[in-house]
Amino acid sequence: MYKQECIAMLLAGGQGTRLGILTRKLAKPAVPFGGKYRIIDFTLSNCSNSGIYTVGVLTQYQPLILNSYIGIGSHWDLDKKRGGVTVLPPYVRHDGGHWYLGTANAVYQNIEFVDQYDPEYVLILSGDHIYKMDYSLMLDYHKEKAADATIAVIEVPWEETHRFGIMNTNLDNAIVEFQEKPREAKNNLASMGVYVFNWQLLRKILIEDEMDKSSDHDFGKNLIPRLLEEGKRIYAYPFRHYWKDVGTIESLWQANMDLLHDQPELDLYEKDWKIYSVNPNQPVQFIAPNAQVKKSLVNEGCQIYGSVENSVLFPGVVVGEGSVIKDSVIMSDTVIGKNVTIERAIIGEECTVEDDCIIGQPGEGQEEITVLGENVVTVKAKNIPGGVEINIENCHEFGCCPNGLTKQEVIS
Amino acid sequence: MYKQECIAMLLAGGQGTRLGILTRKLAKPAVPFGGKYRIIDFTLSNCSNSGIYTVGVLTQYQPLILNSYIGIGSHWDLDKKRGGVTVLPPYVRHDGGHWYLGTANAVYQNIEFVDQYDPEYVLILSGDHIYKMDYSLMLDYHKEKAADATIAVIEVPWEETHRFGIMNTNLDNAIVEFQEKPREAKNNLASMGVYVFNWQLLRKILIEDEMDKSSDHDFGKNLIPRLLEEGKRIYAYPFRHYWKDVGTIESLWQANMDLLHDQPELDLYEKDWKIYSVNPNQPVQFIAPNAQVKKSLVNEGCQIYGSVENSVLFPGVVVGEGSVIKDSVIMSDTVIGKNVTIERAIIGEECTVEDDCIIGQPGEGQEEITVLGENVVTVKAKNIPGGVEINIENCHEFGCCPNGLTKQEVIS
Amino acid sequence: MMRDVMGIINDTDIEHKLKDLTRVRSTAAVPFGGRYRIIDFVLSNMANAGIKNIGILTQSYNRSLLDHVDSGKEWDLLSKRDGLFILPPIFRYDQFTGNLGDVDHYYNHMDYFTRSRQQYVLISSSNVVYNMDFRDIQQCYEEKQADIVLVYKNAVTEENNNFRVLSLLIDNNGRIRDMAASREKKLSPAVALEIAFMKKSLFMQIIDDCIARGYRDFTKDGLIKNLEKYRIFGCEHQGFAAKIDSIHTYYRHSMGLLNPEVWKELFFRHGSIYTKVKDEPPVKYQASAMVSNSLLANGCHIAGTVENSILGRGVTVHPGAVVRDSIIMQKGQIHRGAVVENAILDKDVVITPGKQIRGEKEYPLVVEKQAVI
Amino acid sequence: MMRDVMGIINDTDIEHKLKDLTRVRSTAAVPFGGRYRIIDFVLSNMANAGIKNIGILTQSYNRSLLDHVDSGKEWDLLSKRDGLFILPPIFRYDQFTGNLGDVDHYYNHMDYFTRSRQQYVLISSSNVVYNMDFRDIQQCYEEKQADIVLVYKNAVTEENNNFRVLSLLIDNNGRIRDMAASREKKLSPAVALEIAFMKKSLFMQIIDDCIARGYRDFTKDGLIKNLEKYRIFGCEHQGFAAKIDSIHTYYRHSMGLLNPEVWKELFFRHGSIYTKVKDEPPVKYQASAMVSNSLLANGCHIAGTVENSILGRGVTVHPGAVVRDSIIMQKGQIHRGAVVENAILDKDVVITPGKQIRGEKEYPLVVEKQAVI
């Protein structure tokens, strides 16, 4: 193999349990977002745009879609003869097999993979966040500070500090204390889960941490405190642009809505920092004579006969005449009939919403997002109350199962 | 996904323990063979040449090299928009993770993958064998016999029947009895581990077998007997060409030697049935003025100043002046100094054999193959007795460790 | 599937019928339908029918086309044995005599035809927009025991009346009895779509016969003169098919896509139409956007008014701008207050604030690539 | 790495110096060293130096070259932003005036140069075989604060005396004071290798100046006439470099590879030389094979005698056949009892049993592609 100055290890094994039915058959990084992307597209595109062309993707939970989506990375310009993308599932050695037990353990189990490239630096990334960041600038900062490790941080509202790992820094941005999800935070600088390490140091710490039977083998919980204890130079790298952990249905919905302002904080149209994705083959979208589309993102293959407002439509969505889609996210190839109303909802792939349905009934004081999982079918004139989640396991309760199937058949 | 008539599931998780140090860091299907191939190249090329373009490769043991070798299958012309190669490691579901417990269980865990393509037939293959076979002819045979399952069989010498699964057939080739490694075989038709199944039947049997806690979840041991018990139509498909299970050092060596006849049984030069492989980038080979090369396969990047007879040389091997290589296999980028003698040996990748060494001392009545694992370095004028196996774990006993390393450093 | 058929697409025609649109590219590479190029249709039809070996005879000036089809990956034509082959004109400019007919182009690539393993050829020109199951042609060939099959369409409208069309006289059995390339007089409503199917050996023999006699035109010399000698049959294409042979037909057929029936037939009927994909974000509609009866490719940014129009990738319509009955190709920018009506804007055209350009429906205004107005 | 440099390879030269070898392909696409094409060397040098955007100006007749370089994947040039671009001559044969110099070719692709993001250009002809670290050129450019850097080699031998070479007169500071393309009279032993490095803006300005004055030759009109105006410096390449400009130099430099020092320098010195890989099995030596001092590409099958020769992919030498001091390209077949000496056999040549062909070392015999003797 060839020596590389810096390689990235991308943690993409997360189950994302708080995304409920959306991550039932899908790892969180593979969840669709923003009309044509999957969440992991942002991190992979950041790597490609930052000139980090060697990326190991650590997968474990429901990796089939993720694996075939990533392939050899050609969609992100990461199919290189030297390096490129390598998917790293857990595996069996001659002394047996071990699942990844924590973020640090996952990297520990792939020390040999990293060693192949003999890098100076390793970038640890997560596939769960929506943001645009030039990692090469962070690497420069790490070198400039002569740091042992650098952690990207972002200011979060003080009232949310208890959800994050909080960094207390001195004037030079050196981290003096780390609080994991503190009740009383001394600071509002939260870790973004983006780290640069000197590889030889990280390698040593990973091996030590592995020996420690009491450790959870987690970067934030175990490795960073251990490094601080040892008095290593750890710096905070302040990041001041859009960053979102889409860990819940509400935040996933909100992050989609964030894109719809006339001047959104996260600009998908920037020519020099493209977000790459696997492009489906669909014809251009058709907006019918009486359609209305405003404040929305609409994709190829869509046919809009009704009204779409403040919504995100993935490729191949059909919106029938007289239907009104508002404040919603509609995933690929879903067909919506005539005179349907959908409000504050996330509709999964390949659903069918027949004529005259109302989804997320407005005006009933429902604040929660309504979610339909993939392949759900609502019969004509069905009312789906706001805030419910329907998938193939509970669809029979709502009469929303795919063509004539009973619960038993659907699940098997 | 798109419907496919037939897809292949290729079992590539085997550890190949009897190949000793050669499979220490490598799954058996990834073991180098024939000067530029890996064992799995034969099965993948067979798929491509047979028009089977959708292949799931089930990996579990040390898959890193195999995964990056296979990539998206472009080297075997298997990178298709519809189908193509998918590597299928074990994974974690929302109810937990399970390693593959047997060949049948591995396929069971990937029923969803197969269902995506809704195939009529599934071809079960192993990545462990060297042979050229047109699976489409076997599929035609399966249809013609209206069989529920078809098993490819080959005649083996009677004295070896105890090592194989033996099929007893009637005149029409229907299998009436199956003996797994019998002490007294009634027949010498051995299963090649190549099966065609009707998918709906296999799917049902896999689920039933999974429920059976006493089962080893193995195709040969459990599934075939179960099908026979149920009175299903199982046919033997006789195969009459070269086929070799390279399960031991001896058989791996022998299979390499088989290629060196002027008219070998297995022809690598057939234009219409190419064996594809990942091609390294090396210049053309150089045969020096006083070199001698006979009855051998030699690859790009080799520089031959000495004598090579009845041997297989992988790319980038250097043979110094006055050296004699006989009846041996030398893997990639190994450098052999001057006046070295190597006989009946397999030398791993990137070894260094310094001047005046003798490996596999001839004439001492040694019948066993001598094996050097990868990166072994023999100092000047070293004698390596025939039949030993040297790798980085025992190299210090023979004074053959990479540059100045002690045992401790080598292993860590 | 048609694995035993090789596809040949002839894009060597250099007449100026598409005016400014073919000044910088060949007919095959002219953008169509927002994100396609004209060649995508015949290429996708071939790929969808299972043809694995396709040769494109190009003009010298083929940079746009090369860039567009690349290695053929988008049509799943990457292959170790077959695949997509670019066949440029073979001559050296120091030896060029100024005269090349399509027969010469075919003849110069005889080695490619010889080397290919397929037994049949499907030859097509590069300028027809349609979605057809090409397997029907081979079926027709076998049913009629034909030597050659030509695809035709019964043209009921008055189209093409300014240009030569190849009209056919077909007997009750489907055999073609007469053919003529004429401007006004038509033999029947049957118009050939310039697709021929035959054995490769017969094709090579016809080319050889033409060369031996100094003939240069495959249709006139190779087919029309041989109507007696070979059994030439017609195979009717019943769906939508548009030959793009003038600015007028280009504009009219583009606008035809705004009929959802045509749009669906063309893009979904027998198989998908593939094209080179690009990394463009979704179309962004701002609060002030007013869009109706239009087709928009990804990457567009709409804040103004768009009616009855087709917008290519990455077009920006600023607030207060109006686009009506027009075709705007890739990356066009229509600034605040500008008005575009009945126009075809080639790639990268900028209409500065307040400017108004208007053509007539029957005579759309064409603005050349990269113009700033 | 040279990310801010775009590479330009000029393969538009159509002189007949390589005779039959360039009858069916351009110079860039002539096979060399068993499995390479001549262009592989400059292309690999560029790729190894980190250049990510490379344009190849081709002749009209570029099928072999297109097939060889394909999408640039072998040189790791597949890229979303940059990559490998084929730039065919831009003219239509109905408008062709019969006159094209290299300046015209550059001028016709001005849009490509404009669009590219790089600040510098490295321009090279397609016919030099060498392994050079191109980063040295940029270093020289910076050290000397040059406007233009040309690479040269001090030629001690009598080579090239039949052909024009571009000799240089260089002052003590490395600045080029005179240049002349002459057959016999040389200004000094310094011979230009036809590689120039400069700012893209300067390159475009020189082209524009030439076009404005009707000049056609980049070297003579763009460089020689501007020796006073611009600071043009030389950068010496000290290793092996062979300009392939005649059958004689082709044969001599090919045979030079049999010197292991040259072979190692050329293929391993600064980086690997990449080429299109093919799926060929190893070379098979039968019991009767006698091979010495030769280079063999994979897929060869040797049962006879091979001495001092270079064999391309898939060559078969049958028992009793003898190949001496010859170059046999891809898939040549030398049958039982045949003898080949001092010859260059193009691809797919068959020498039938017992036939003998012999040239002279100073005048090797060239057998054209697919000949059966």
Question: Would you summarize the structure shown here?
Answer:
The complex is a heterotetramer, with 2 copies of chain A (412 residues) and 2 copies of chain C (373 residues). Chain A has 412 residues and is an alpha/beta fold.
Task: Explain this structure.
The complex is a heterotetramer, with two copies of chain A (412 residues) and two copies of chain C (373 residues). Chain A is of the alpha/beta class and 412 residues long. Chain A is built from ten helices and 33 strands. Chain A starts with 5 loop residues before the first strand and ends with a helix. Chain C is an alpha/beta fold. In chain C, the strands form seven sheets. Chain C has a seven-stranded mixed beta sheet, sandwiched between helices. In chain C, strands 14-17-20-23-26 form a five-stranded parallel beta sheet, with no helix packed on it. Chain C has a five-stranded parallel beta sheet with strand order 15-18-21-24-27, with no helix packed on it. In chain C, a hairpin with a 5-residue loop joins strand 9 (165-170) and strand 10 (176-182). In chain C, helix 3 (102-108) crosses helix 6 (200-213). The N and C termini of chain C lie far apart (50 Å). Classes of the chains: A alpha/beta (412), C alpha/beta (373). Chain B binds chain D through residues 34-36, 262, 268-269, 274-277, 279, 281, 283-291, 293-300, 303, 308, 312-313, and chain D through 33-35, 74, 258, 260, 263, 266-268, 272-275, 277-279, 281-287, 289, 291-299, 301, 303, 310-311. Chains C, D: It comes from Anoxynatronum buryatiense. Chains C, D: Pfam families: Hexapep_GlmU, NTP_transferase. Chains C, D: Belongs to the bacterial/plant glucose-1-phosphate adenylyltransferase family. Chains C, D: Residues 17-167 form the Nucleotidyl transferase domain.
